[in-house]
Amino acid sequence: MVEKIKDFVSRFYLALVIVFLYAPIAVLVVLSFNDSRSRVVWGGFTLRWYQVLFSNHQIMDALCTTIGLAFLSAGIATLIGVLAALGIQAMRQRGYQVMMTFTNIPMLNADIVTGIALMLWFVRFMPLGFASVLLAHITFNIPYVILSVMPKIKQMNLSVYEAARDLGAGAVYAFFKVLLPQLMSGIVSGFFMAFTMSMDDFVITYFTKGAGVNTLSTMIYGELKKGVKPEMYALSTLIFATVFALLLAVNFLPKRKGKNPAGGPAAR
Amino acid sequence: MKKRPWLATPYAVWVAGFTMIPLLVIFQYALTSREGAFTLANVMAIFEPVHLKALLFSLEIAVGCTIICILLSYPLVMAMRRLNMGRQGFTLFILILPMWMNFILRILAWQLILSNNGILNFILQKAGLLPLSLANTGTAIMIGVIYDYLPYMVLPIFNAVAEIDEDLVEAARDLGANSLTVFCKVILPLSVPGLLSGIVMVFVPSMTSFVIADVLGGGKLQLIGNVIEQEFTKSANWNMGSGLSVSLMLFVLISMAFTTKNETEGKSSSIW
Predict the structure, then answer these.
(1) Is residue A70 part of a domain?
(2) Dihedral angle at the C-alpha atoms of A61, A63, A66, A72, nearest 10 degrees?
(3) How many whole angstroms separate alpha carbon B80 and alpha carbon B257?
(4) H or E element: which one contains A180?
(5) What would the DSSP string read from start to end of A36-48?
(6) 3-class SS at A34?
(7) Is-above-0.90 flag for pTM?
């Protein structure tokens, strides 16, 4: 009986937190179907914004920039980050600590400080634009990759690698066949983490972007004063629904090896 | 396996080019006047009453947000522990998913919920309760930062708690500990590394999130982040902006040094 009550209370609390987290999302989804330019008046159900959305070039451009940026920065950060994690793990105590401290700097520093520091540096040798934002995103993404790959490297079973070498595999071949699969879950979650962080970033992009480029975040910020376009709610709803569907599929379709249930960033 | 520390070379170059040099550059701006002469005035400007007020308000928000996030996270993590593995994964995913809805839009939605003739007051009135006036208050900003940063506290604590050996908990129970004792004597101490990274992930950004303060504070309440942002965008005083950033950075480093003094090496860095 006591267990039943405990179960009920804990589930009720979980539900409360989920309501708290999803309340604003529900509001945005409802707004995306609202047939009125005003945010406070309900003008009836419409799919108009979803149609208008695809003919709004500014929003489409910003979407392409955002997604391109997220893919490129997460990809490059994953490459550099995985190599870095392997290298750092092989270092002696002193080097290890120095590198890990530097890895933690962007995490410890407020976004605004990172953004400003990069901007002040970039303006000295390059025009602010897509390239500078990309460099900035890679910079704050690498630590997420390193921090999610590092624990996997520590748990890695090296004897399998040595066995492969003894049996005649070359170093590179053995790396791809034996070590990389062991690191894969860490690499994937690092990539997802980096991708998510890049998609969701506003502050660092805001300071390093210059005039011509806009991501969805900076575009929405620019629209805040005069009012956000309803198309934007439609687009966000679409992105959200897509990711929701993808992650549901990853979660519930094939249960491979039963590990890594979340499939996304939280899976370590 | 042969040791290959050189694999980290690209990263080391990256760190030098895009972490260290930018920090040196911001220090250079912070320590010079507009004419280029050495000065401490920009860094010391944090002690001017206007800036100090913003810093103290930021501190209030950040400390409040961190404490409330901790208080919300532990029951949540304990509730998640009661679920089976598959459900746990699903719940985690539910907690992270909101990050895929644009952050500024989510904050904007909170503005609609909390405004004086907004959704919350509509519900309260329907329920026969008195309406609240939360719009443009510190409380609204607080709700915004808690909302935005709660997952950053839950995830590392969850990861730390998930690693706790179930045998330890059972041993404690066999020896007569009740749930509260198990929590205080076993789970809480063993989750400290997660707690510490949660604090870092929540405290720092909640001090500076100028967008949240802009949208939910109605532009009247300023966090230190708003002050810095305006030095760059409105006053175009890069030296002053850099000076304030540097003092903010030092302030954060000192307060973090206090919190994480006893952390064990490497452990707390595994955030996800």
Answers:
(1) yes
(2) -80
(3) 31
(4) helix A180-200
(5) SSSSSS---B--H
(6) strand
(7) no
Token pair 């009125």 is found at A36
- What's CA B194's distance to the chain center, in Å? 14
Identify any residues that bridge with B257 across adjacent strands, giving them in sequence order: none
Are the C-beta atoms of B38 and B51 separated by less than 8 Å?
A: no
| CATH number reported for the structural domain that contains residue A109 in this entry | 1.10.3720.10
A-chain CB neighbours of B272 within 8 Å are 144, 147-148, 189, 193, 265-266, 268
Q: What is the mean pLDDT of chain B?
A: 87
Question: What is the CB neighbour count within 10 angstroms for residue B130?
Answer: 8
A107 touches chain B (CB under 8 A): yes
pLDDT in tens, B149-163: 999 999 999 988 988
Contact yes or no for B205 and A121 at CB 8 A: no
- pLDDT recorded at residue B122: 84
Rounded to whole angstroms, the Cα distance separating B90 from B84 reads 10
The verdict on residue A264 lying in a domain is no
Residue of A nearest to B84 (CA): A261
Q: Which CATH architecture has domain B49-236?
A: Orthogonal Bundle (1.10)
User: What is the Cβ-side half-sphere exposure of residue B181, based on CA atoms within 13 angstroms?
Assistant: 10
Q: Please give the Cα distance from B142 to A258 (Å, whole number).
A: 39
Return the ∠ at Cα B135 (arms to B133 and B137), rounded to 5°: 95
Question: What would the pLDDT profile of B150-209 be if each residue is shown by its tens digit?
Answer: 999 999 999 889 888 888 888 998 898 888 888 888 899 999 988 988 998 899 889 888
- Answer whether B144's CB lies under 8 Å from B109's CB: no
Residues of B in contact with A18 (CB under 8 A): 94
Cβ-based contacts of B112 with chain A (< 8 Å): 27, 39-40
pLDDT surpassing 90 at residue A64: yes
Enter the tokens of residue B131.
Answer: 């309406």
**ipTM score assigned to the predicted complex:** 0.87
d(CA A200, CA B192): 28
CB-side neighbour CA atoms (13 Å) of A142? 29
Q: Is residue B260 predicted with pLDDT exceeding 70?
A: no
A4 is a domain residue: no
